[in-house]
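Good morning C.,

I know you're traveling, so I'll keep this short. The sequence:
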Amino acid sequence: MTIGATVIGTGLNAEGSYIEKAINYLKEFTELPLYSPKDLVDAMQNTDCYTELSSALKICMINMSKISNDLRLMASGPRAGLNEINLSPCQRGSSLIPGKVNPVMPELINQVAFQVMGNDQTISLASEAGQFELNVMGPVITFNLLQSLKIINGALESFNDLCLKKISANRVRMKEYVESNVGIVSAIIPYIGYEKAAKLAKKAVESGENVRELCLKHTTFTKEELDIIFNEYEMTTIGIAGLDKIEKKDIEK
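The tokens, ready to paste straight into the viewer:
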């Protein structure tokens, strides 16, 4: 924000060197690359630069909160949840259930995100409340913006050290999910066509067998070919796994 006592940004009532000296002092004191706005009158009237920063912080934390929600679901279990990943325990767990690991770091990110969203709303209202050549709502804008920056910085540092760096994957469980998922039948559509793949999917649902087993029984795919087609990494990247390596097949042996 502009420095006061210069009549709505005109510089009136201050020496010509005042702005330069003030900026140099603040740069030295804060060790930040500060500079004077090109249009001081606009800087007094409008606080859009602060709403822009606050909005960027809000969007960042919305995304972080969504990521945290995903991690909480992926770590749910181990019996009745997904149990795809392990989150490192940061405390003794539930006061009611011994051994339970609560996802406290993702929950921290959720709560910080909510606070930052609320701060952004306050900053937006304060910025809009300016009248004519002056916006007197600077204190509440500054308070909320500094709070958002402070809590984001602390939360992300803790989240990185106590959660992200310590996540491990339950590879056996995730492999079971992939192999038992009827949806992977889509990977063989380019080789046998949609209708034949749909028949295999229906058999998988009715019999409880997985798609790979049914392919070995009812198609001429070899085990090696199926290893290429149903490769977990290849199925989650752009393109069709091994499409140029495997000939099209008939559904029946």
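Safe travels,
E.
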